[in-house]
Design goal:
The chain has 192 residues and is mainly alpha-helical. The protein contains 8 helices and 2 strands; from the N terminus they run ααααββαααα. The radius of gyration is 19 Å and the shape is globular. The mean pLDDT is 92.
Length: 192
């Protein structure tokens, strides 16, 4: 059919699960009651866990990050995260209710869907911004006296690499969010 119609396939047609999994995340978030948003695990070793609200905001932020990674667009005005705490320290987020988070998730999904609408031939596209960011990473590592051979050999990330990161990263946090909610007795959306 494709050859007969002459229609060029899109990235979304090549990565069909990308949109499905983002919509799945949106359904999970929508099914979480407002009273559950502040649930946060504690780590007996003192490590930091996101609250349910923070997980939801982090997922929304990550969708927006993809555009910035590709074209250098400043997406800070669409981000909930204000301060990065790494793996051990609390992150700081702006205050947001569930409706605002759901809205930003949808807007972020739309920004990723624009990437999925591109021709499939763009899967290995590397923007000038990505090339420059890659060059700067190499220079920074070299300035620290670190080996850059594998980083240089790998080259800058292509569009497919960024899309796979967004989907895999989101899957990880959605699963964590679902587990947290179900472990606390909340019935949240499930795909299967």
């Amino acid at each position: 059919m494709e050859a007969e119609s002459g229609a060029e396939r899109t990235i979304g047609q090549e990565l069909t699960w990308a949109r499905t999994l983002m919509v799945y995340t949106d359904a999970v978030v929508a099914s979480i009651p407002e009273e559950a948003l502040e649930i946060r695990l504690t780590d007996p070793q003192g490590g930091y866990f996101f609250s349910a609200r923070e997980l939801m905001m982090h997922i929304a932020d990550s969708r927006w990050n993809a555009a910035g990674w590709i074209d250098g667009e400043d997406v800070s005005d669409r981000q909930f995260r204000q301060e990065y705490g790494g793996t051990e320290q609390p992150w700081k987020f702006t205050a947001a209710g569930k409706d605002e988070i759901v809205s930003r998730l949808a807007e972020g999904r739309n920004s990723v869907e624009k990437l999925l609408a591109r021709p499939a031939a763009d899967l290995h596209f590397v923007s000038e911004h990505q090339r420059e960011a890659h060059r700067q990473r190499i220079e920074a590592r070299q300035a620290e006296g670190l080996d850059t051979e594998s980083l240089e050999a790998g080259g800058p990330p292509s569009l497919i690499d960024i899309l796979l990161f967004v989907v895999a990263h989101e899957q990880s946090h959605r699963s964590e969010l679902q587990w947290l909610m179900r472990a606390c007795g909340f019935n949240v959306h499930r795909l299967a």
